[in-house]
Specification:
This protein is an alpha/beta fold. The protein is about 30% helix and about 20% strand. The strands form seven sheets. Strands 7-10-11-12-13-14-15-16 form an eight-stranded parallel β-barrel. Strands 2-1-3-5-4-6 form a six-stranded mixed sheet, with helices on both faces. Bound molecules: 4-O-methyl-beta-D-glucopyranuronic acid. 4-O-methyl-beta-D-glucopyranuronic acid binds next to loops.
């Protein structure tokens, strides 16, 4: 071996020192706008960047563009650009609209055909000086161009010779937030609202401004801040000045404010005895209300409407249609160039489940297709990407081709309501892209969903993209540090749906964690595999997310879909599973698609395996294209999925010391939790299907857990066995609890295995109505203790609260007694399900 010379050792030490500075502690608040210092060679690449920035023009948005540029360059390169107002006598970065640039320096580059919000980045000589030009037709485009330059620098891209035009795919690129005025957020998983608290707009809107900056950096230009389950108070006269304060913090970032409104507002807060859209008094009320809003908020964007849905009032009260309601409101907004998003999420949630022809998936098309052409041109129909409700896999909604003479926007969901609620890693761009790229066959040439919603297919004047995001006051915005990849990915796809998921994942990883190739490769690989992993241990074959649809929408709840009016049925019985939506024998839903698509899904042969149970009811023994039976696929995919979830932990472990300690620890905690909860999912779904089908797992895994000691089978002191409901939510259908008057309980068993190193998995229930304490002892020695203080969505011991604690590296000897102690707290009775013991070498 070669001797290390002292200089090399110094080099190594220096490298280590550099690595530790780059591994700075981070909260995630900066998201993808970290502007972390570039080191050595990477920084050298930008040595010739001009020292001056010149802004031609004067507006809040241009001011943001300039300050952002200065901030980013300062952060990444440690230099403060000079701020100049006139064309320089030295190399410079020029920011301005094309018209401002042309009049200051005639002959300067201008890209023909730039659309609103699009921008041009160009390096060229101006009066003999080398300049980097960022230009657009409007100020917002200039801001977007600045963010693009900064992103290139952060990702180590060359900017010394640029001529690049970027255009948005569609004019509408919005987010919806389901924030309530009391500060709670419907389906929000990252703390309280950044907009509201205690019935008012927050006094401190710093976070709202920071959010607008994040949105602008990915090209989002509109944001509806209040829940679609709307509170009429949002339109009360004394509330409007509060909304204006939010608009003020959005404005510098080119983000237009919107709110969701309740169509019954004219009656509830307007003093009228009706909200009938055909009543002239109602029209006048909306008109006056809207005029008042625009007096305070001149750049107000418009409204979002949810009506006649899930118990909300709507035009049906008066026998009117969604078009009547939408147009009445749209006409009030029209003089101000405002728009109405009318949501197509309208369905009867009291559907008779006994009727095999009933089908919730049909609802949007059945209701909205007959109204095509009846909506005013400032109405946009906002259509969830699938016909049900953000399940882990759905086909594209047939309504996309059901409206040719009506503007459309696709509604996606960044907040992971049905995809793990930011406790499970689930990177959604690959799922969204399946729908966006899906050819709806509405013409001679391909007509993918992305083109239809962008207005390209049917030549609509407007349309685009909306995502429900639900960021909260948690420092990292969405709870899971890796979940922000979904917001980033949404913005990038709304800007350009032709970007690949791979590119988006890599960009995000670079911007959020730096350019270390190992980090970028590992994180993007984790992201890109995460949706298939989540799908495989939750709801495979298109059966829907087999979750508790009546409550949390979180853990497994296979039974909850059935025998109720909500219509998220999978129709599993003793013989088979799946919804028959064919035209021949089922609900006829497939006929809502154009011929080529309906033909594809009508036939069992051509329906892809991953959507089989969405379209067809088949016996459990039906053989998939993969060659497996349906039932064996269900078992195998759940086992493979749980294993793959465990593997995510290993992948993340390999990044220790390569990413900052704070985010490393937070992600690790969540991934370990996910690996445990994937087993809860696996066991609940597999056991449910074993019970109903009676067909055993070919590999003998389901129902057999040799490494497991059930708590109810241990020696109990104080602990009492009880039935967990539904039974598949716990191992063996039972668990033990330490209910009052007991104040401390224990469960013990003798270890009979060979002497060696072992890992212990303790499955316990962490409810949100108490903070029980647990201890594990081997003999007299305490080997672990913890408090069950997580905030899972459950007040009972069930699959939502079931949680795994892994204790690694225990030296066990035959005859050891293992004791579990629980101390209940409040309504949480320190419930225990089982212990599993595995050799540490496995
Ligand atoms: O997915 C369902 C959610 C509701 C939501 C509704 C909707 C805001 O469970 O919480 O209500 O969709 O999209 O309107």
């Amino acid at each position: 071996m070669r001797h290390l010379r002292p200089i090399t050792i110094c080099g190594v030490l220096l490298l280590l020192a550099l690595r530790s500075t780059c591994a700075r502690a981070e909260t995630g608040a900066d998201a993808w706008l970290r502007y972390a210092p570039l080191e050595g060679q990477a920084a050298q690449k930008y040595a010739h960047l001009p020292a001056t920035v010149v802004v031609l023009g004067d507006s809040l948005v241009l001011e943001s563009a300039k300050t952002e540029l200065i901030r980013g360059i300062r952060g990444m390169l440690g230099r403060t650009l000079r701020d100049d107002k006139t064309l320089p006598r030295e190399n410079a970065i020029l920011l301005g609209t094309t018209s401002a640039l042309q009049s200051a320096a005639p002959g300067i580059s201008a890209s023909a055909g730039l659309r609103e919000d699009g921008f041009l980045l160009a390096t060229e000589q101006v009066h003999g000086f080398d300049c980097l030009i960022v230009t657009a037709t409007n100020d917002r485009g200039v801001l977007y161009g600045v963010f693009a330059v900064l992103s290139k620098i952060a990702r180590d891209e060359n900017i010394s010779s640029l001529h690049e035009t970027q255009q948005p795919y569609a004019p509408i690129r919005w987010t919806d937030e389901w924030d309530n005025l009391d500060g709670s957020i419907e389906r929000g998983y990252a703390g309280p609202s950044i907009f509201f608290e205690n019935g008012s707009v927050r006094a401190d809107l710093t976070r709202a401004g920071e959010y607008a900056r994040l949105l602008a950096s990915i090209g989002i230009n509109g944001c509806a801040i209040s829940n679609v389950n709307a509170d009429p108070r949002v339109l009360e006269d004394n509330f409007l000045p509060q909304l204006a304060r939010v608009a003020d913090v959005f404005r510098p970032w080119g983000v237009q404010l919107s709110v969701s409104v309740d169509v019954s507002s004219p009656r509830v807060i307007g003093g009228l005895d009706t909200f009938d859209p055909a009543d002239p008094r109602v029209a006048e009320w909306w008109s006056k209300k809207v005029d008042g809003i625009y007096r305070l908020i001149p750049n107000f964007a418009g409204f979002v409407v949810k009506a006649d849905s899930e118990g909300r009032l709507g035009p049906a009260t008066y026998g009117r249609t969604p078009a009547d309601a939408a147009n009445a409101i749209a006409r009030a907004l029209k003089p101000h160039h405002g728009i109405v998003f009318y949501r197509a999420f309208v369905y009867n949630h009291h559907l008779d489940w006994r009727d095999p022809k009933n089908d919730r998936a049909r609802a949007a098309y059945d209701i909205f297709h007959p109204l095509d052409g009846k909506f005013d041109d400032n109405v946009i129909i906002q259509i969830k990407h699938g016909p049900i409700d953000f399940q882990v896999r759905e086909p594209a909604s047939p309504l996309f081709t059901g409206l040719e003479k009506t503007n459309e926007a696709i509604e996606l969901q960044v907040t992971q309501e049905y995809t793990g609620q930011q406790r499970h890693l689930c990177f959604l761009p690959p799922m969204w892209k399946e729908v966006l790229d899906f050819d709806m066959h509405a013409g001679e040439h391909p007509t993918p969903v992305k083109d239809i919603v962008a207005g390209k297919t049917f030549q609509r004047p407007t349309g685009g993209f909306v995502a429900v995001v639900n960021v909260g006051m948690d420092a990292n915005w969405l709870g899971h540090p890796l979940a922000m990849a979904n917001l980033y990915g949404y913005g990038r796809l709304a800007w350009n749906p032709n970007l690949s998921s791979n590119r988006i994942a890599r960009e995000w990883a670079q911007l959020s964690f730096g350019n270390d190739p190992v980090v970028v490769h590992t994180i993007s690989n984790m992201l890109l595999t995460s949706w298939p992993i989540y799908e495989s241990y939750t709801g495979p074959l298109g059966a829907g997310t087999l979750t508790d649809i009546l409550g949390s929408h979180y853990g497994p709840g296979v039974e909850s879909s059935e025998r109720n009016g909500w219509g998220q049925w999978h129709r599993a019985d003793h013989d088979g599973v799946g919804m028959d939506r064919t035209a021949a024998t089922g609900t006829g839903y497939v006929d809502q698609y154009r011929a080529a698509v309906s033909k594809l899904y009508e036939s069992l042969e051509t329906t892809p395996d991953n959507l089989l149970l969405f379209f067809h009811h088949v016996p459990y023994t039906y053989v998939l294209h993969s060659g497996k039976t349906v039932i064996q696929h269900i078992y195998d995919s759940h086992y493979a999925g749980a294993e793959a979830a465990a593997n995510l932990v290993q992948q993340w472990n390999s990044l220790k010391d390569r990413v900052d300690g704070e985010r490393y620890a937070e992600v690790l905690k969540r991934l370990e939790y996910q690996a445990g909860h994937a087993i809860v999912w696996r066991d609940a779904v597999c056991n449910w299907f074993l019970r109903i089908s009676g067909i055993p797992d070919q590999h003998g895994r389901v129902g057999h857990y040799p490494a497991r000691m059930e708590a109810e089978g241990m020696q109990l002191q104080g602990y009492v066995p009880f039935d967990v409901i539904p039974s598949e939510d716990s191992s063996g259908g039972k668990a033990v609890e330490c209910a009052p008057p007991a104040q401390k309980c224990s469960a013990a068993f003798r270890f009979d295995g060979a002497a060696g190193w072992y890992d212990l998995d303790v499955e316990y229930f962490d409810q949100n109505n108490g903070k029980s304490k647990f201890r594990v002892l081997v003999g007299d020695q305490v080997v672990d203790e913890w408090v069950a203080d997580d905030h899972l969505p459950a007040k009972k011991p069930n699959a939502d609260s079931s949680t795994r604690r892994r204790i690694t590296g225990l030296a066990l000897r035959p005859g050891d007694t293992i004791h579990l102690e629980g101390i209940p707290d409040d309504k949480e009775y320190a419930a225990l399900d089982y212990i599993e013991i595995h050799s540490s070498l496995d």
